[in-house]
Write a structure and sequence with these properties.
With 247 residues, the chain is an alpha+beta fold. It is built from seven helices and nine strands.
Length: 247
């Protein structure tokens, strides 16, 4: 495999394999069962978890045991320039938001034993305050911390006897910009990327989801291997940051 170049190729001075500064501020939303504000570079997302003591109708009808996790994702109007119109104004959820909230739900359901959760629904809300690339990866990474805090609270209140969490989950973006593989793309890099890839992984080193495409371009197996190597190293750092935030 061709080694990654070590020179700086980025507007913010980061090395190709360097994450943007990351900060997790827990208990940000006092009425949520668990919450955190994830600040990742200039991207900021509030992740809040609340619990409903019931399950979706389809689970009851099909006699599916255990609980469920569902997610909602939204970008606040002032999170981008120009102003982003609220979905409620249009009368429907836009396709991108729908795709991202489904991704968040899938990622978190892979982190938990739904049978141990019992007959309850965990509702995860991810609201983007400021967007500078990687909002979906920030939402997943922060939402796992909020979920962990919510599970702790349920256990401390005696509502859960056994910890249903199986593995930590985090997500990161990688891409190829001007022929250079880069970790954790900011908005300007994402907009200029010839190849864009999002990785969702757990602490067991397993892939939960890969979302990748060539933006009017193609990429080789060797380039894919480079991106996966970058991404896995980034995930490792994110998992440590989550552990520190929960310590």
């Amino acid at each position: 495999m061709t080694p990654l170049p070590s020179h700086n190729a980025r507007a913010d001075g980061r090395k190709p394999d360097q994450l943007r500064p990351l900060r997790l501020q827990n208990h940000f939303a006092p009425h949520a069962t668990g919450s955190t504000l994830i600040e990742w570079g200039n991207t900021r997302v509030i992740c809040g978890v609340m619990v409903e003591e019931s399950v979706p109708r389809w689970m009851k009808e099909q006699n599916v045991p255990g609980g469920w996790i569902t997610a909602e994702y939204s970008m606040l109007p002032y999170s981008t320039r120009p102003r982003k119109t609220r979905d409620i104004t249009k009368g429907k959820l836009d396709g991108r938001s729908q795709e991202i909230q489904r991704l968040i739900g899938r990622a978190l359901r892979a982190a938990i034993d739904l049978e141990k959760l019992g007959p309850r629904t965990i509702c995860v809300d991810c609201d983007v305050l400021q967007a500078d690339g990687g909002t979906r990866t920030a939402a997943i990474t922060g939402a796992f911390v909020a979920l962990s805090l919510a599970v702790r609270r349920l256990m401390s209140e005696g509502l859960l006897k056994n910890n249903p969490l199986q593995h930590s989950v985090a997500a990161v973006s990688v891409g190829i910009v001007q022929g250079q593989p880069l970790l954790d793309l900011c908005y300007t890099e994402d907009a200029a990327a010839a190849v864009d890839l999002n990785l969702v992984m757990n602490s067991a080193g397993e892939f939960i989801e890969l979302q990748g495409s060539g933006e009017e371009s193609t990429f080789s197996e060797a380039q894919l291997a480079q991106l996966l190597t970058l991404g896995k190293a980034g995930i490792h750092q994110l998992l440590h940051a989550q552990q520190a935030a929960l310590a």
